[in-house]
Design goal:
- With 474 residues, the protein is α+β, with helices and mostly antiparallel strands.
- Helix content is 27%, strand content 24%.
- The longest helix has 15 residues.
- β10 and β11 form a beta hairpin.
């Protein structure tokens, strides 16, 4: 077999003897793909079509032993290393150029123990895998809002969604992890074993190793919940946003109310005359009884005169996948994001101005509501530090034609700058694009120095650097 040319951590290249590559292949339960092999291009393709990188090799792991072998190989050759879970991260860190890529996408097992209300999830599982298994028992883990997202990346960055105000962030329900660290050792980390490592993976991203499985605590929910969308014309947005702020502040923890500003999609539930026109959407989800959900949603349903009112009892798994058609793979994506304690008049005005200048039909702005249990946990309890955030605004720019790159990215950056005076200055790490290295300290805030110490202990050579990287020097 021919030698393989690897990109190294130093920026140089190294030739690896083909016999070593074949020895790696023989040690794997899964597969090893090289450029030109069938399946190579599919394996290196990820959700964000702006990312087009070509690893020297892709290890398609089937278990922790495969991950250990790949980490050992990468460390021995000081190779650039990328780890793919769901491949959904906006920055594209799941794939590298010229290095070793560990692909966990075949590790999607989910095992629910309904009696202990615990679930064990492998590192390549998607949110849909977890929801389908847990909802079979009327149980749930608080996770994100797009069912094609990977559980690994979501969790390691914090994780929030429709049920977080009631049950906390995803990491607030994490009980343990199995993780392969830079020395190739498989470690269990929880509140008693390797507690510093367990603290760090709850919000510190992929800096500390490859998590092969997660164990979560479960909560009763579903299978039916009160949820749905309220669509209004953009002309009603100035008054609606101010009423939304009032109602959101008064809402019980069981109710999450999000805002979305975008052009109405050509969905069957949207009247044809509104397709492609700017709208403001209130998205609701309630984690209590159906009776309580109907009652708590009513004040939002009474606002204005909605084009469409879809709020009512829905299967929770269906609601979790409701936005999937708007977030399919293959488009070019760029995000900017801010954390907010309050939505000031200035912030609302900036959002409305940008919503009237959406560069494509697929671009959107969303305001995710936090608070509730998320904010009642101490900032130092987990690596995720910002327990004062009540709203997260994501500027999601999405388009198809590379010729529109400058226009679309410029729109997001312009709004980001306009919102900055009204924001907290911090950012949710999972919403950071690859060009925001200057915001990493702000993302980890008061926990940065402790994270840097854990990084020095478990990854002294910074093998795991394709992430929102924490410097060992603090």
């Amino acid at each position: 077999m021919d030698n393989v040319r690897l990109q190294t951590l130093s920026g140089a290249h190294a030739l690896v003897d083909g016999t070593e590559v074949e020895a790696l292949r023989a040690a794997l339960r899964g597969g090893l793909l090289l450029p030109g092999d069938p399946g190579y291009d599919a394996a290196r393709s990820i959700w964000n079509a702006m990312i087009d990188r070509k690893p020297a090799m892709i290890v398609q792991a089937l278990g922790a032993v495969d991950v250990k072998a790949a980490v050992d190989f990468a460390r021995k050759h000081e190779a650039v290393l990328a780890v793919r879970g769901g491949g959904h991260n906006i920055a594209g860190n799941a794939v590298c150029d010229g290095g070793v890529m560990i692909d966990l996408s075949r590790m999607r097992s989910v095992r629910v123990d309904p009696e202990s209300r615990r679930v064990r999830v492998e590192g390549g599982a998607l949110l849909s895998d977890l929801d389908k298994e847990t909802q079979a028992f009327g149980l749930v883990v608080p996770i994100g809002i797009n069912s094609t997202t990977g559980i690994a990346g979501l969790t390691l960055g914090g994780g929030f969604g429709w049920t977080s105000r009631t049950f906390g962030l995803t990491i607030d329900n994490l009980l343990s992890v199995d993780i392969v660290t830079a020395d190739g050792e498989l470690r269990r980390a929880d509140g008693r074993q390797n507690p510093d490592l367990f603290w760090a993976v709850r919000g510190g991203g992929g800096n500390f190793g490859v998590v092969t499985s997660f164990e979560f605590g479960l909560h009763p929910l579903g299978p039916m919940v009160v949820a749905g969308l309220l669509l209004h014309p953009i002309a009603e947005a100035p008054a609606l946003m101010r009423e939304y702020r009032r109602l959101a502040a008064e809402a019980p923890d069981e109710l999450s109310a999000w805002l979305v500003l975008r052009k109405a999609p050509p969905a069957p539930f949207v009247p044809a005359e509104w397709h492609g026109k700017e709208v403001i959407i209130i998205a609701l989800c309630h984690t209590g009884t159906l009776t309580a959900g109907e009652k708590d949603a009513l004040p939002f349903r009474k606002l204005g005169k909605p084009i469409v009112d879809l709020v009512g009892p829905h299967p929770f798994t269906g609601w979790q996948a409701a936005f999937d058609p708007l977030l399919t793979p293959g488009a070019r994506n760029y995000w900017k994001s801010h954390d907010f304690k309050e939505l000031s008049d200035g912030a609302c005005d900036a959002l409305l101005d940008a919503a009237k200048r959406l560069p494509t039909d697929e671009c959107e702005l969303f305001v995710g509501q936090l608070g509730g249990r998320v904010n009642r946990i101490a900032p130092e309890a987990t690596a995720y530090p910002r327990r004062d955030v009540r709203f997260i605004v994501n500027m999601h720019t999405r388009w198809r034609d590379p010729a529109q790159d400058e226009t679309c990215i410029g729109w997001a950056r312009g709004l980001f700058k306009a919102l900055a005076p009204h924001a907290l200055g911090s950012v949710y790490v999972n919403f950071m694009p690859s060009d925001e290295k200057d915001r990493i300290h702000g993302a980890f805030g008061s926990n940065y120095e402790r994270l840097a110490e854990v990084k020095r202990r478990y990854d002294p050579i910074n093998l795991f650097r394709l992430n929102q990287n924490i410097s060992q020097t603090g």
